[in-house]
């Protein structure tokens, strides 16, 4: 997760204007989108837009404000009012971990908590993404302090609650807090979003047994942490709380706006050169072997052959890979493109650069493929985002996906690894040939999101964890 790095809004500059016009003014929406150069070709969405919080008002520069959560008496986090919370992030980027912590910062600000943010690793050069994210926080009243120095230590000592985000953030305790570590630990909540092997290092997590609690995004990941810390490191996890994530109100707003969805769909499809009736199967994830785009393309190719071999009458099917970055994963990216060329499926496969704005793609595709390999996703937020758009999910039977997708009801699961290639190909054909089933699964997915994967569900879950952690910290302070 730490390596997911920067993604950029990549989209044609017209859509945000259309979208603003369409969405109700009473609530929400989106960042700010500043269109840069404009060069559209039929094979991919082209314009690179950057996120910034600098207000530019003009045709080219559309700023749309994210409204903060309206405080209602029923807000489950309201007991956090006036509490001082220190959030410690290993980095500040557009990847999942830091963005989640920022969401928590805003939820806490929404109920009047005092929130201080520290970023441990910062590039030495000024970075536009960091600048923009920091300003977004400052705008919402979050205080941003340097990670090192007396101010950081004093805040940690004074805070009612300290949230360490990701395993790597543990390094901050020894390098900055030093001899005061034992005083801080009883009020630390450690939020963990990763499960790759290299995070299980004593230098990161040796204080883990002594914190007030750990919060983890899925049961599978929590189990895995319990096993690994015990077996590899000989340490015991603290009280561990599983908190499934929820969709933001902004995302739900678009997902439930049929007019906006239709406009986005037409627009993206036009720029990809696909027709309204064509079926789009998409993986939306940073391109890397762990996310399984290579195996997905193999399945996709097999499904084309199955359709041809059985002479099935289906609309033309396309594979969309959102999350490319030719600069970074060159070898893997090249491998994917070679596969496409060798098998002559260029017309059916579309690569799209990394983007933070997934809504236009979710509005345009017909099926989300979540093909993460090995232990799968820790949670996999794109899965609940896709379900909000009434999309069925074809997912690997691993990690958080198994806690989100109900096999046979909201999607179909296949195994990880090579043995999952054929089942995924069959599932692609199943959903391509059976319109009714596809749409029903999408609806069931949406219902599941409404039942348990909304922002308020996440707030409620987080609130009950924070309550317990605060109680423990207070007991500790008075004992
Ligand atoms: C995608 O990203 C690559 C590398 O960052 C860049 O060279 C290319 O122009 C981008 N493509 C589009 C369509 O924006
Ligand atoms: C954890 O270990 C137990 C027994 O040692 C095993 O049954 C379980 O599958 C393991 N869970 C994970 C997620 O590795
Ligand atoms: C998912 O359900 C189908 C039947 O609908 C079954 O054939 C398949 O084995 C299940 N897959 C997993 C991974 O549970």
CATH architecture tag of the largest domain: 3-Layer(aba) Sandwich
The CATH topology assignment of the largest domain is Rossmann fold
Rg (C-alpha, Å): 22 Å
Q: Strand arrangement, largest sheet?
A: 7-6-5-8-9-10-11
CATH homologous superfamily grouping of the largest domain: Glycogen Phosphorylase B
Bin the strand percentage.
15-25%
Bound molecules: 2-acetamido-2-deoxy-beta-D-glucopyranose
Briefly note the structural class of the backbone.
Answer: alpha/beta
Low-confidence stretches: 1-14, 20-71
- What's the CATH class of the largest domain, please? Alpha Beta
Compute the separation of the termini in Å: 38 Å
Shape, principal axes of CA atoms: elongated
Number of domains: 2
Biggest pleated-sheet summary: 7 strands, parallel
> What is the helix content?
40-55%
Number of strands: 17
Please provide a brief summary of the model.
InterPro entries: Glyco_trans_1 (IPR001296), Glyco_trans_4_5 (IPR041693). Helices cover 42% and strands 16% of the residues. With 479 residues, the chain is α/β, with parallel strands linked by helices.
Characterise this structure.
Pfam families: Glyco_trans_4_5, Glycos_transf_1. This protein is of the alpha/beta class. Helices cover 42% and strands 16% of the residues. Strand 5, helix 2 and strand 6 form a beta-alpha-beta unit. The N terminus is likely disordered. Bound molecules: 2-acetamido-2-deoxy-beta-D-glucopyranose (3 copies). One 2-acetamido-2-deoxy-beta-D-glucopyranose binds next to loops.
Give the tags.
18 helices; 42% helix; Rossmann fold; 2 domains; alpha/beta; 479 residues; binds 2-acetamido-2-deoxy-beta-D-glucopyranose; single chain
